[in-house]
Design goal:
The structure holds two protein chains of two kinds.
Chain A (H helix, E strand, L loop, with lengths): L8 H8 L1 H7 L28 H28 L2 E5 L10 H5 L9 E9 L7 E8 L6 H4 L4 H4 L3 H5 L10 E2 L2 E2 L5 H4 L5 E7 L5 E3 L10 H7 L10 H4 L28 H7 L7 E8 L12 E9 L9 E7 L9 H28 L11
Antiparallel strand pairs in A: 1-10, 2-9, 3-8, 3-10, 4-5, 6-7, 6-9
Helix pairs in contact in A: 3-12
Chain B lengths: L11 H4 L1 H6 L17 E4 L3 H5 L15 H12 L3 H13 L10 H33 L2 E6 L2 E6 L8 E5 L7 E7 L5 E5 L1 H4 L4 E5 L2 H4 L4 H4 L5 E4 L10 E6 L2 E6 L3 E2 L4 E3 L3 E8 L5 H6 L8 H36 L15 H16 L5 H20 L13 E2 L11 E6 L6 E12 L2 E3 L31 H9 L2 H12 L4 E4 L5 E4 L3 H12 L2 E6 L3 E6 L2 E11 L7 E7 L5 E7 L1 H5 L7 H16 L3 E10 L1 H16 L4 H12 L4 E12 L3 H10 L3 E5 L4 H10 L9 E5 L4 H26 L1 H22 L4 H4 L12 E6 H7 L5 H9 L3 E5 L3 H14 L3 E6 L5 H6 L2 E5 L6 H5 L2 E3 L4 H39 L12 H11 L1 H10 L5 H6 L5 H4 L6 H26 L13 H23 L5 H21 L2 H6 L9 H6 L2 H28 L3 H15 L3 H20 L18 H7 L5 H28 L23 H10 L2 H13 ...
Parallel strand pairs in B: 15-27, 15-31, 27-30, 28-29, 29-30, 31-32, 32-33
Antiparallel strand pairs in B: 1-8, 2-3, 2-4, 4-13, 5-11, 5-13, 6-7, 6-12, 8-9, 9-10, 14-33, 16-17, 16-26, 18-19, 20-21, 21-22, 22-23, 23-24, 24-25, 25-26
Classes of the chains: A alpha+beta, B alpha+beta.
């Protein structure tokens, strides 16, 4: 380090007078005086906010005054939403689905059906949304989440033939690639739910359920695509692949509608959109409003007919069916309203408390005389 | 990334294969050497012979890499950083698919970025090192090879070579001086680069080799030198030269060390003894230590803690995973079978542990280190750019040479300062003088006008144009011919050891041993008493335009004990006079008792000068009669020839003659302080920074400077001086000092308030106990008498000399020393070696948990600069060594206040705020995963998209916090200089410590809880407007991520106190970039190209179009921010810090639009000046100012004629021949004319003058007249009347006394003021008249002598 440090002989000269040297060198000696810019001299114009009573206290009051009305609005809206939830897992002996839930395995070919009667106390106006809900189902497990091949689902031929390693152990079966591969697809929810309105006059009227428009537009149109392109023969496209182990039908037989079949089957897409939490609900069907004069679902008795295929008892899971109306802010969500009201009130109270503290003990006023 | 500045020692073999073998004792570690060198044998002119020993060559390598080794070595080095290795480890973990919870690029992108930035930086650094190495190594030197001088590069110079050095060349290696062009083998060197002393030193070769002279003879020189192995002792060399079967002892006096510069010597020849890394310079350079700031260390500790925390979280989650897999996962296998290698829950838990380590590692993101470096770099640039730290005289801007220490500048508690060149400019200026009771130089500028600098040129063509003096009265007095004034300056022109060089007529260059002497002789020169040249026996001066040759009879040389020097000269008139100058204490007690009154006046003046921090000297003379001289001369000769106790005898002889002197006056030399030193020191001590001065100078000098820069004041309760030579005495002195302190402070406390003392005592007891616990048993008894040392009230100062310091630094003494020294307000260590400087710094580092800063400008400060936490180099006159070793450099000491109080404070503040926020934001970010773990089966599923995880730290949140870290200001710069107390939080480490860290962490965890559970609660049931549930993973991820980005942005907005355009840009830009990038990554286009990489297609738009999501984000933000806001407001409102208050007042003022800042500043400045006034109050203590950095024996050199150059010698010979004959005649005449005087008589004997020669004849009558007693008495009374005389009255008296001559003298003075343009006749005449005049005025002295005369007789 040190050795590198000798000053050159001529260095001695230049020290003595920069002016002379500069003149002699024809301005070769650069004036090293730093530039006088606001940036370099750290004099940039700046806004210097400071937490004073004049700014903080009003902020609290304003937050309070904004949050409380929003909370009230949300709460009221949420309360106006009608929702009914029916657990059809069949844990209890008394439950209609108890039998179905008991003797079940993935491979049984004969379907087990159970019907659950229920009652709507209020008529459901406008569109009604039918969900199935699962509990204790870990769709958010890391190994589960990654066990898919988005490239395959996007209709990539190569991925169709050789699914990604992520799909293991559901990538190949019987030496054939599985389409769709992976644990998610393999465990697709396959109960069939049907809804019947028990007319007071005794007839059972099936409530028409729409199976489309239940997935994200982007999923349906971008993320999921069948191999072979539009309009081609799905069975041919999927030739050489095999169905997921747990499935009863191959993927190209999910629906009769060619626009809702194969990878772009919306039930499939909905299932593939994994849930964030172990208890979740997924949109199953939409009950469209037919008649503007009549409620979509009038009050009365209904029957839920379930083709019980999906085993959840083994891991202590629960299955539910939910019917819900909707508002501008979505489904029923009491928490948001309450939370807003609470936070708003706390802010407001805090504002008052701080105001009192400030007036009683505030140190701000004598700040002007600073001692050294 | 923190970069290792120097390669750890163990890598030397790898890095520097060449250096390995020459690493002999480099840095003191010799164990690795193959063979420990015990003695060195060097044979001159015999390369083959010397090669056997494999001595290091003269090539110096400070660089670390070459092109080939750069990549592997640099990477290797970088991976020695724990952090980098850690990230590499994480990267490897991620490659295991069962563990990988993140994609590989989340780690590799930042890591690669960091590594490459660091590599580029290292490469640049090393490139410059290469360049400077090459430059040094390729310097040319002339080597005597095979009989002829050949140009060789420095690096090719070998041990045993003989090289030729020319004037002003750097010495290439440690040389044994063989011969020089100067007589007696003398040569002069400047050792500024080595030890910081600017005065020249003399080196002399062994006489046998000195005779060799030129290369032709040197070729055959085959002497062998056997000497000590390489070491770092600059002032010691021990060896023997064997030549022609004879032994010649060698000492340091024969050595030229690398780093010195040859001066005033045409050329010299030297034998290379030590080369390259073995040279004393390199040996002294020590090992560069890698400096870390305390924040760095704290950060590293915290990072370790966080790692611990990380492992804990990993363990918790792994246990959770085990439980979950057993309880739930095993049942869930029908849907989610275990991965193939996993066969039980324990193994799954093990894997899960590592997976969680990977995803939770972002609590300590790699970007932390990068950001810290970037911020420091920014701060360094601000330092470099600061115009207020730019010195326009030397065109030097401040430079932050290290970019890793900035925030530590805000925490400094101890400053160790060099004196010469740091506090002072090392320029001595003749500032004031007191001549015969009249003080000059005190120029009042009541109107604030700058006093006019005196222009000497019309008066004196030989004047030095650089000389500055402002008091016109003195020049008037000279012109008028005041005899005292003339004698005063005559003394200055005669009594010194300065050498002169007159290149052309009138162009005088003085070569002074010490700058003080130079200043005095220059002053005399400008006032008309020009010292022209000297020979061993004569001194030629030009007095008021007339050349006078004095014969030099004796030089009574200076030494430390005598503290004075005298010359005995015989003037052309044949009168013998002793001129003495010396420390006032010494001189004043040797005066004739008739001086009593004058002494008291002069003492007052001396005190005044000393109080102003000037170095003072008292001047006196004595007339000697021929007999006296003869008698003394005999005894002197005896003493000189004595073989035993020569020194003592000489001193006694000197003592004998330096008696009964007549006081002439006193000089006051200003050791010019650098600009603003006083203010800076005052300001820094207001900021609670303790300043220690460590100097190689003498005690007197150091103390004087201490006073002049107001470190020491007369108000101080007591100043302790430790100067013991033995361990016991030092220990005793330290103890005594401490006891005295306690005693005094007790007395003071009792005097003030009883309760305060009680409190002090209480604290003291507690402190004492604490200290006991800390320092261990050994120091217990030490502390017992001084338990309350920390609470000493009253101001004390400690002055310790080098030899005492050596004892004080011994292991068992050091705590005692620290205890005493730290209780003092000011500490001055004088006569310390470079190594001791470093030791003192190390001592404080060891015993006080405080940040130290060392500031210096010379090579002798290098070790201190390197060992202190922060080293500051003054890029001054003393070379560039210190600057190169330093961390910061600038041109003037006063910039230190800005460096510390402005830049340091800001840096510290910014760094602390940065770190607080950084840990906060990463905890807020990462801990969400922890909470999510409980809901996803502890499967190490991330909450966020992997791209978000990659980009969060390097894109979304880095810039706002960087902007804050770089630009934030709590108070503007001038405020922090106005309120030095603002510096205290840094010293107390208040802004970022463990407590603050935990608060940040807690806040981060709180935020993470909110960020997870609010979306959890809201989204689990919420649906989109079209009924699609929002609880899918991707929506949840986007919501949480968005909420996180918004919350941390709001938080940084709250933290930012200084919103420049950049802050706005970065804060808004980050939020904007988050949305932009997210939409881009979730776009269909990217998905279509890489369907397997972008799973989140469409999530952004689907999520962010939902009002519920925004309501959730707003809710989460409010819950996160409101408590912080309330807490901060309360803190600010109830317990505002000083900075808050200052900031607030600033705001109020800005609102009022009043330039109130000025009045504020004025107020402060007012107090400053008040305190200055108080400090400047004259105290009663007298301080000796005799402060020559003098070496003994120079007088001897002069009288022996050894140091006379040939040319000047020849000239002088001629002059002396002439003069000696002249003097001979004088002597003869005197002997015939005058009767022998009584030995006790000290009156000037003008009677001798009567026959001095034809030239004097016309004034002889006047002189004779002045002998008349009546006039003597008359003038005597006149003098007594005007005791504190005004020159005018004196003048009147004198002109009365010399009535017959008054008209001519008046004419002469007027003429002389008009310039030396008179005809030769008048020129000849005028000085004589003046001299006569002077003589006449001198006659005011003798009567008193005459009055005193009877005493010796009566006795």
């Amino acid at each position: 380090m040190l050795a590198s440090s000798y000053k050159d002989e001529d260095g001695h000269i230049s020290v003595s007078g920069s002016g002379a040297a500069a003149a002699a060198g024809g301005g070769s000696l650069r004036n090293k005086k730093p530039e006088n810019t606001a940036f370099k001299q750290q004099r940039l114009p700046a806004w210097q906010p400071i937490l004073t009573a004049g700014t903080v206290l009003p902020a609290f009051f304003i937050i309070g005054l904004i949050f409380i009305p929003i909370g009230i609005g949300l709460y009221v809206t949420s309360n106006n939403i009608k929702e009914i939830e029916i657990d059809y897992t069949g844990v209890d002996m008394s439950s209609p689905c108890f039998n179905c839930s008991q003797n079940f395995s993935w491979n049984s070919t004969k379907s087990c059906t159970c019907s659950i009667p229920f009652q709507l106390d209020q008529p459901y106006e406008s569109n009604v949304f039918m969900y199935y809900g699962l509990s204790n189902f870990y769709q958010n497990h890391r190994r589960y989440v990654k066990s898919r091949d988005d490239s395959q689902l996007n209709g990539n031929e190569e991925s169709l033939r050789s699914p990604s390693k992520e799909c293991e152990p559901y990538a190949r079966h019987d030496n054939k690639p599985i389409a769709p591969c992976g644990a998610i697809a393999n465990s697709m929810f396959n109960d069939t739910l049907e809804l019947f309105y028990n007319d007071p006059n005794g007839t059972k009227v099936q409530v028409p359920l729409t199976a489309t428009e239940i997935a994200w537009w982007t999923d349906k149109h971008v993320k999921f695509r069948n191999p072979g392109g539009e309009g081609s023969d799905l069975a041919a496209a999927f030739q050489g692949t095999t169905k997921p182990v747990n499935w009863r039908r191959p993927v190209y037989e999910l629906d009769s509608d060619p626009n809702n079949n194969g990878f772009i089957n919306e039930d499939f897409i909905v299932w593939m959109r994994t849930a964030a939490l172990p208890t979740f609900r997924k949109l199953y069907r939409i009950i469209q409003r037919r008649n503007n004069l009549l409620p979509t679902l009038p009050r009365g008795n209904y029957t839920l007919e379930v083709v019980y295929n999906y085993p959840v008892r083994s891991f202590e899971g629960r299955k539910r069916m939910i019917l819900s109306t909707i508002s501008w802010m979505g489904g029923k969500n009491p928490f948001l309203g309450i939370a807003y009201i609470t936070v708003g009130s706390i802010c407001f109270l805090l504002g008052i408390v701080l105001l009192i503290i400030h007036h009683k003990y505030g140190n701000r006023n004598n700040g002007a005389d600073v001692s050294h | 990334m923190t970069v290792l500045k120097d390669i750890p020692e163990k890598w030397f073999p790898v890095v520097l294969p060449i250096q390995k073998k020459k690493k002999t004792g480099f840095g003191g570690k010799q164990s690795k050497k193959k063979r420990t060198e015990e003695e060195r044998k060097v044979k001159a002119n015999d390369r083959e012979h010397n090669e056997k020993f494999q001595y290091a060559s003269n090539c110096i390598m400070t660089s670390k890499y070459n092109i080939l080794t750069f990549l592997p070595v640099n990477l290797f080095e970088q991976f020695q950083e724990v952090a980098n290795t850690y990230f590499l480890f994480l990267l490897i973990l991620q490659l295991i698919p069962q563990i990988s919870s993140l994609s590989w690029f989340t780690t590799i992108v930042p890591l690669a970025l960091v590594l490459s930035i660091t590599a580029v930086k290292d490469a640049t650094d090393d490139y410059f090192r290469h360049k400077s190495d090459n430059q040094v190594n390729n310097r040319q030197s002339q080597v005597l090879i095979r009989g002829s001088l050949q140009n060789e590069k420095w690096m090719n110079v070998k041990v045993g070579d003989i090289i030729k050095l020319e004037n002003n060349q750097f010495v290439a290696a440690d040389l044994l001086l063989l011969s020089s062009t100067e007589p007696h083998g003398l040569c002069y060197i400047e050792t500024a680069e080595l030890d910081g002393e600017t005065n020249m030193k003399v080196r002399q070769s062994v006489s046998v080799t000195a005779e060799l002279g030129d290369p032709n003879n040197l070729v055959s020189f085959d002497g062998e030198v056997v000497c000590e192995p390489p070491n770092n002792k600059l002032d010691r060399f021990c060896g023997t030269l064997y030549w022609h079967d004879k032994k010649y002892p060698l000492s340091n006096q024969n050595m030229l060390l690398r780093g010195c510069v040859l001066r005033n010597t045409e050329a010299c020849y030297g034998l290379v003894i030590f080369a390259g890394p073995d040279t004393k310079l390199m040996q002294n350079s020590g090992r560069t230590k890698f400096k870390r700031t305390s924040i760095d260390r704290l950060m590293n500790t915290l990072v370790l803690w966080i790692f611990g925390f990380l492992v804990c979280m990993g363990l918790i989650l792994a246990v959770g995973n085990a439980v979950w897999e057993q309880e739930v996962g095993s049942l869930f296998q029908s849907y989610l079978p275990w991965d193939p290698p996993v066969d039980n829950f324990l193994f799954s838990a093990f894997l899960s542990f590592w997976s969680y380590i990977i995803i939770l590692n972002t609590v300590v993101p790699i970007s932390l280190y990068v950001s810290v470096e970037v911020i420091r770099l920014g701060h360094s640039y601000f330092i470099n750019w600061d115009r207020r730290m730019f010195c326009s005289q030397c065109n030097t801007a401040a430079e932050a040479r290290t970019t890793t220490l900035n925030e530590e500048l805000g925490q400094v508690e101890y400053i160790f300062s060099d004196k010469t060149g740091t506090l002072t400019q090392n320029i001595m200026s003749f500032n004031k003088c007191s001549i015969y009771g009249q003080t000059y130089g005190e120029v009042m500028d009541t109107l604030g006008k700058k006093p006019k600098r005196l222009d000497f040129t019309p008066f004196n063509p030989l004047a030095d144009p650089d000389f500055r003096f402002y008091d016109e009265k003195l020049l008037e007095s000279v012109k008028v011919g005041d005899s005292h004034t003339h004698e005063f300056f005559r003394l200055l022109s005669l009594c010194h050891t300065v050498m002169s060089e007159e290149k052309s007529e009138g162009e005088l260059v003085y070569k002074a041993q010490s700058p003080d002497e130079g200043a005095l002789v220059t002053a005399a020169r400008n006032f008309g008493f020009v010292f022209r040249s000297r020979t061993p026996g004569t001194i030629t001066t030009t007095e008021m335009g007339r050349t006078v040759v004095y014969s030099l009879l004796a030089i009574l040389d200076f030494n430390n004990i005598r503290k004075r020097m005298s010359v005995i000269v015989r003037n052309p008139e044949g009168k013998i006079r002793l001129y003495c100058k010396g420390a006032d204490t010494v001189v004043l007690e040797r005066l004739h008792s008739c001086n009593q009154e004058l002494i008291s006046i002069t003492s007052d003046h001396l005190n005044e000068y000393a109080a102003d921090g000037l170095r003072t000297l008292a001047l006196a003379y004595r007339e000697l009669s021929e007999d006296e001289w003869e008698a003394w001369s005999e005894s002197h000769r005896c003493a000189d020839k004595a073989t035993d106790c020569r020194e003592d005898r000489l001193a006694a002889a000197y003592d004998k003659i330096e008696q009964d002197m007549m006081l002439l006056g006193a000089t006051a030399i200003e050791d010019k302080l650098q600009e603003g030193v006083q203010e800076t020191i005052a300001l820094l001590s207001l900021a609670n920074i303790k300043i220690w001065v460590l100097t190689g100078d003498k005690q007197e000098t150091a103390v004087n400077i201490g006073y002049s820069c107001k470190m020491l004041t007369d108000d101080m309760t007591e100043v302790f001086i430790i100067s013991g030579h033995t361990v016991q005495s030092v220990r005793q002195e330290l103890r005594r000092a401490r006891e005295r302190m306690i005693e005094l402070s007790r007395a003071k406390d009792e005097g003030t308030k009883g309760w305060a003392e009680a409190r002090f005592m209480g604290n003291g007891l507690k402190d004492g106990q604490e200290k006991d616990g800390r320092t261990g048993e050994g120091s217990k008894q030490l502390n017992s008498p001084c338990g309350d040392m920390d609470n000493i009230s009253g101001e004390f100062a400690l002055i310790i000399s080098g030899h005492s310091l050596a004892h004080a630094l011994e292991a068992d003494m050091e705590s005692e020393f620290v205890l005493t020294a730290c209780a003092c307000k000011a500490v001055i260590c004088c006569r310390v070696t470079p190594l001791q400087k470093a030791q003192v710094v190390e001592l404080i580092k060891k015993h006080k948990n405080a940040v130290t800063l060392a500031i210096g400008d010379g090579a002798n400060d290098v070790s201190m600069i390197k060992s202190a936490h922060i080293g500051v180099g003054i890029s001054g006159q003393e070379g560039i060594q210190a600057v190169l070793a330093s961390d910061y450099s600038f041109a003037q000491f006063r910039f230190l206040q800005r460096l510390l109080l402005v830049h340091g404070r800001w840096s510290y503040l910014r760094m602390c705020r940065f770190l607080c926020y950084f840990f906060y934001k990463n905890f807020a970010f990462t801990m969400v995963h922890f909470w999510f773990g409980f809901f996803c089966g502890f499967s190490a599923q991330t909450v966020y998209d992997q791209y978000f995880i990659t980009l969060y730290n390097i894109v979304y949140t880095s810039l706002p916090v960087l902007a804050m870290g770089v630009f934030d200001q709590d108070v503007p710069d001038h405020r922090s200089l106005e309120y030095p107390k603002l510096y205290e939080p840094g010293q107390l480490n208040l802004l970022f410590n463990k407590k603050e860290f935990f608060i940040c962490i807690a806040q981060g965890i709180y935020t993470s809880v909110v960020l997870f559970f609010v979306p959890y609660a809201v989204l689990s049931n919420a649906t989109q407007i079209n009924g699609v549930p929002l609880a899918d993973y991707q929506t949840f991820a986007v919501t949480t991520a968005t909420a996180l980005v918004i919350v941390v942005s709001v938080q940084i907005a709250l933290d930012t106190g200084f919103w420049t355009i950049f802050n706005h840009m970065f804060v808004w830009g980050s939020v904007g970039s988050y949305f932009t990038i997210m939409f881009a990554l979730h776009s269909q286009t990217l998905f279509r190209i890489f369907p397997n990489q972008f799973h989140f297609v469409g999530s952004a738009q689907n999520t962010l179009l939902q009002p519920v999501v925004w309501l959730t984000i707003a809710l989460a933000t409010a819950i996160c921010v409101v408590p912080v806001l309330a807490f901060r407001f309360l803190k600010l409102d109830l317990k505002p810090q000083l900075s808050d208050t200052v900031r607030y007042t600033q705001l109020v003022r800005q609102k009022r639009r009043k330039p109130g800042g000025r009045s504020m500043g004025g107020a402060w400045r007012g107090t400053g000046s008040v305190s200055e006034g108080r400090l400047g109050a004259r105290g009663g203590s007298r301080r000796s100012g005799y402060a020559f950095s003098h070496q003994e024996g120079f007088g001897e050199l002069i009288t022996s004629g050894k140091n006379m150059r040939l040319s000047s010698l020849a000239l002088a010979n001629f002059a002396s021949k002439h003069s000696s004959s002249w003097i001979e005649t004088l002597r003869r005449k005197k002997n015939t004319h005058t009767p022998p005087n009584t030995s006790g008589e000290c009156s000037p004997a003008p009677s001798n003058m009567s026959g001095t020669g034809p030239a004097l004849s016309n004034s002889s009558s006047v002189l004779g007249g002045s002998q008349e007693t009546s006039i003597e008495e008359e003038s005597n009374t006149a003098v007594e009347l005007s005791s504190s005389s005004h020159p005018a009255t004196l003048e009147v008296n004198e002109s009365k006394a010399s009535a017959p001559d008054s008209s001519t003298s008046a004419a002469a003075t007027t003429d002389s003021s008009g310039g030396w343009t008179l005809s030769l006749e008048t020129v000849q005449e005028t000085p004589f008249d003046q001299r006569g005049f002077a003589r006449a005025s001198y006659s005011s002295d003798p009567p008193c002598d005459a009055r005193e005369l009877p005493h010796p007789h009566t006795k």
